[in-house]
Write a structure and sequence with these properties.
The protein has 198 residues and is α/β, with parallel strands linked by helices. It folds into two domains: 37 residues; 140 residues, 3 Solenoid (UDP N-Acetylglucosamine Acyltransferase, domain 1). It contains four helices and 17 strands. Strands 1-3-5-10-13-15-16-17 form an eight-stranded mixed beta sheet. Strands 2, 4, 6, 9, 11, 12 and 14 form a seven-stranded parallel beta sheet that branches. The chain has a two-stranded antiparallel ribbon with strand order 7-8. The termini are far apart.
């Protein structure tokens, strides 16, 4: 259509060798997509298909940690065993971050241990702030949630999708919203889990 910008990339500046490498990478990406779809019923970004999620997790814990290649890890981050950290998360350990065992951080979860807002609004006069953030054992943080610096999320908690956690969350608590509000409790009896909502 006239007036629309083309989404095609002009590869004319590439050498013949670079074009060949690009074609090889495109072919590899297609094969990895086919394999991932067949084995896991999912299509991943190429990087997540190329690099081993568990091997990357071994850098932070030695016992069954899945850490997607698209997740950014900064500073002092301690991750307990048997955690699953999904794609496109940010784990900011610049102020110290501890994640307990058996946790799930769904895709897009961001956990902060620093804040630069006062530095910005003061024109660089106020210092950056740092405070440790802690996630207890066996807690679930849903997609696109943000946990601010200095907060503690207890054990056996559920944080709803898109939640902003800006204060501590007690053990066995369900929170959701922006800012996070208590909406229920996690009840575990004889290995059965129930959510009791307020």
């Amino acid at each position: 259509m006239s007036g629309e910008q083309s989404l095609d990339i002009d590869y004319s500046i590439l050498s013949a060798t670079e074009k060949s490498l690009l074609a090889t990478l495109a072919s590899l990406s297609d094969k990895l997509d086919t394999m991932s779809l067949a084995q896991h019923q999912r299509l991943n970004p190429m990087l997540d298909n190329v690099l081993d999620w568990r091997k990357r997790g071994e850098k932070y814990a030695n016992n069954n940690v899945v850490l997607f290649p698209s997740t950014v890890v900064i500073g002092d981050v301690q991750i307990g065993s048997n955690c699953w950290i999904g794609p496109h998360c940010v784990l900011d350990g610049s102020g110290g971050l501890t994640i307990g065992k058996g946790c799930t951080l769904a895709s897009g979860t961001i956990i902060y241990t620093h804040d630069t807002s006062k530095n910005t609004v003061s024109g660089g006069k106020a210092p950056y702030e740092h405070a440790p953030t802690t996630i207890g054992d066996y807690s679930f943080i849903a997609t696109n949630s943000t946990v601010l610096m200095g907060t503690t999320i207890g054990s056996h908690c559920v944080v709803g999708a898109g939640t902003l956690v800006n204060k501590d969350v007690a053990d066995y608590t369900i929170v959701a919203g922006t800012p996070a509000k208590v909406i229920g409790r996690v009840v575990i009896k004889d290995d059965q889990v129930e959510y009791e909502y307020c």
